[in-house]
Design goal:
191 residues; alpha/beta; five-stranded parallel sheet; 9 helices; 60% helix; binds BIS(adenosine)-5'-pentaphosphate; binds magnesium ion
């Protein structure tokens, strides 16, 4: 089972994917977490990505697709995978389709979290105070939102066109409430 957790910056993708991994056994694969690890380690990928990420822009598709291609087989070995932060452009979605088709697989469901924009800003600015992520500044947050609307939202239509179940889930309320909605949505879409 390959699922995608989708939503704007701060919508709770990482929070919920960690829970889904813990409770439902789908391996959480976050391209943002992988990139932040590369940046922290100072690898060539990290050096290329650091400034782009801090500005809130998207790193090049080829770089991200390469990262996913290398990690997907191991992640797929278990009960399934929940992709967080990928695919984020149409080209990434098409590359993922090809990668999966090579093994006779396809994306099974997409969970799209809906959270009003002012809540997103509040959540991320709150995190900025406790964690200090490099891209949690007002400017970078605004750029991440722009990139989301400009390039990422279209990925949902890509899946709708393929008749992949796209479940819109209300992402407001407590993390527990959101998780229960996701559990219900995944249950419905995976039959
Ligand atoms: P990425 O790490 O994916 O960041 P993002 O999409 O901007 O989203 P966040 O991680 O900020 O939010 P989230 O939806 O995971 O929410 P979270 O659970 O943390 O990407 C970062 C950068 O990496 C990109 O800008 C780009 O440069 C690069 N990148 C990554 N993938 C890429 C790709 N495929 N292509 C190109 N570039 C890529 O929650 C947010 C906060 O709210 C937390 O503090 C959390 O505790 C809190 N919270 C969660 N749920 C709730 C709730 N229900 N109520 C109140 N607070 C809550
Ligand atoms: Mg995240």
């Amino acid at each position: 089972m390959i699922g995608v957790i989708f939503g704007p910056p701060g919508s709770g993708k990482g929070t919920q994917a960690a829970r889904v991994e813990h409770e439902l056994g789908l391996k959480h694969l976050s391209t943002g977490d992988i990139l932040r690890h590369e940046v922290a380690e100072g690898t060539p990928v990290g050096r290329e990505a650091a400034r782009i990420m801090a500005a809130g822009d998207l790193v090049p598709d080829e770089l991200i697709v390469d990262i996913v291609r290398r990690r997907l087989p191991e992640a797929e070995a278990g009960a399934g995978v929940l992709l967080d932060g990928f695919p984020r452009t149409l080209r990434q979605a098409q590359a993922l389709d090809r990668m999966l088709a090579d093994e006779g697989h396809r994306v099974g469901f997409v969970v799209a979290l809906d959270v009003p924009e002012h809540d997103l800003m509040d959540r991320i600015l709150h995190r900025a105070q406790v964690q200090g992520r490099a891209d949690d500044t007002r400017e970078a947050i605004a750029e991440r939102m722009r990139e989301y609307h400009k390039l990422t939202e279209a990925v949902l239509d890509h899946y709708r066109r393929q008749d992949v179940a796209v479940e819109r889930v209300d992402g407001t309320g407590t993390p527990e409430q959101v998780f229960e909605r996701i559990r219900g949505a995944i249950g419905l879409s995976s039959g």
